[in-house]
Design goal:
By secondary structure, the protein is mainly beta. Helices cover about 10% and strands about 25% of the residues. The chain is built from 3 helices and 12 strands. The protein has helices at about 30, 125-135, 160-165; strands at about 1-5, 20-25, 35-40, 50, 70-80, 85-90, 105, 125, 140-145, 170-175, 185-190, 200-205. The strands form 3 sheets. The chain has a 7-stranded mixed β-barrel. Strands 2-3 form a two-stranded antiparallel sheet. The chain starts with a strand and ends with a strand. This is Kynurenine formamidase. It holds the Pfam family Cyclase.
């Protein structure tokens, strides 16, 4: 089993404008008899899942998402050697089967830059490519970047891939890690914190064959 999640740590990178991550002792073992950590962070911290409510008015929140939607066989599409802010188009997806698994993982190699300024210049999926995957059966788009849409450090309200995937009542998983070496087909489990919100941090794993 391989962990595909970034660890949550105090002060870690978050999407521009999101709440910062703060971990601090609330109770101490020697003083209070038990150790308890105070945790403050946004619902889209680290490796996390976006529910439709993230960008769709009236969309499903995480309490309406079943775990069976987030566990299953996945197609891993590896797109290597991309330039900063590159666009991944339909042709870059390779020879897709007529029907893809419900979970599609896009590996750009950009997880290596998580926590650095270059992470903001990640590649993005084109709206046409997102539509092609949805039309072929994708329900969960999982990426190793801050977003499948371009990230603007100054903030943006334009999220075409989110609109397509979440607008189809699908899910988006962002900031996957440790994708290198995964086979093109792999069984994946994405386990969100049980929050009834617009998204939730997850522990994502790839199961051994």
């Amino acid at each position: 089993m391989r962990d595909l999640s970034h660890p949550i740590a105090d002060g870690m990178m978050v999407y521009p404008g999101d709440p910062g991550v703060h971990l601090a002792p609330a109770l101490e073992l020697e003083r209070d008899g038990a150790a308890v950590t105070s945790v403050r962070m946004g619902s889209h911290t680290g490796t996390h899942v976006d529910a439709p409510a993230h960008t769709v008015a009236g969309g499903r929140t995480m309490d309406a998402v079943g775990l069976d939607e987030l566990v299953g066989d996945a197609l891993v599409i590896r797109v290597a050697g991309l330039e900063d802010r590159a666009t991944v188009g339909v042709a870059d997806l390779g020879d897709l089967p007529e029907r893809v698994p419900a979970i599609v993982v896009l590996d750009t190699g950009w997880a290596a830059h998580f926590g650095s300024e270059r992470a903001l210049r990640h590649p993005a999926l084109s709206a046409e490519a997102a539509r092609e995957l949805v039309d072929r059966g994708m329900r969960v788009l999982a990426v190793d970047t801050l977003s499948p849409d371009p990230t603007d450090a100054a903030g943006t309200t334009d999220f075409p891939v989110h609109e397509i995937v979440l607008g189809a009542d699908g899910l988006i998983v962002e900031n996957l890690a440790n994708l290198d070496g995964l086979p093109p087909r792999v069984r994946i489990g994405i386990f969100p914190v049980r929050l009834g919100t617009d998204g939730a941090p997850v522990r994502a794993v790839a199961f051994d064959a």
